[in-house]
Write the C-alpha cells for this entry.
Amino acid sequence: MSPAALATMQEEVKALARERDAVILAHNYQVPEIQDVADYVGDSLGLSRQAAATEASAIVFCGVHFMAETAAILSPEKTVLIPDLDAGCSLAASITADQLRAWKAENPGAIVVSYVNTTAEVKAETDYCCTSGNAKAVIEAIPADQEILFLPDLYLGLWLERVTGRKLRIWMGECHVHAGIRPADIVRWQDEAPDAELLVHPECGCASQCMAFGNERTHILSTEGMVNFAKASPKKRFLVATEVGILHRLAKEAPGKRFEPVSEDALCRYMKMITLEKLRDSLRDWKHAVTVPEEVAARARLAIERMVAIA
Ligand code: SF4
C-alpha cells in the first residue's frame, strides 16, 4: 500500500471508530500501521486494564482471541470485536479446561495461577490470572506454604521459580515464537554487541539460561517493562528477545536509541493476521463479535480481576 493510501485508510479507521464510539486496543506485537491508529498500545495487563476502564461502548481488540475474550469478560455490557476470528495463540492452545480439571484433581487443594494466555474456559478453572508484567507479584501474594499449579508456560514458570524462590508445579506448554529464541541467538548477540543491553521476555526459550549466564547487561522484562526500561536507560543500544512487533513501539517511545532483534524469525503469525483492512472492515461491518457465556465469564472474572488488581 502506498503511504498516501495507508494514511487515507488510517483516517477512515479513526473516523469509523469515532462514529461507532469504539476504542481501538492494540497489543505490542501488532503491525506498525495498527499500532499507529490504536487508542492504546500495550501488553496484556495494560490492555486488560484499558478494557475494564474504557467508557466507549465498544472495544475493537487488535490482538489474539484470548485477549478479546478477556475484554468481553471484564466488560460484559460492551460489544467486543476482533478483526480476525482465526487469530489464536499456540500457548493458549496448549491446555484445555478438561486437562486443567484433571490436573487439579491430581493435586487437591493447590492454588491455580494461569498466565493470561489461556482460553476463558481455562480461566474459569483458575484462582489467579497473571501476565508477565505482574506474575512475580501474583506468586508473592500467595502464602508461602501453599502449593501452586502454574500454567501454561514452562519458561515463564521456570523464571518465576528463580525470582520468587518458590517451588511451582509447572505445565509444559510453550509459545512457539518465544521458545524459538534459543540461547545460541543470545550468545551470538552478546559477542557481536558488547555495548548493548539485552532485554529478554521471560517466555523465551533462552530466558532461564539467560539468568544462568546473565550479567548486569541482561534484563528479564515484560514487553511493557522493556519500553519503560529503554526510555529510562542512559544506554543507546538494545538487543530485544521477544516478538519483533515490539520494535516499532520501542523506536517510537525511545527515539534516538538503537533496537535490534536477537532473532528476526520471532514473528507471531497470529498477531500478524490483524491487518488495517480487516480492522476497517471490522468497524464498518461490526464484526467479529467475541462473547463468553455468562456462567463461564462469572468464574473467569474473579481470576482476571485479581490479576488486574495486583500491580
Ligand atoms: S507470541 Fe506466542 S504467546 Fe504471544 S500470541 Fe503469539 S503464539 Fe501466543
User: Anything to note?
Assistant: DSSP finds 15 helices and twelve strands in the chain. The first strand starts at residue 22 and ends at 27. The two ends are 41 Å apart (CA to CA).
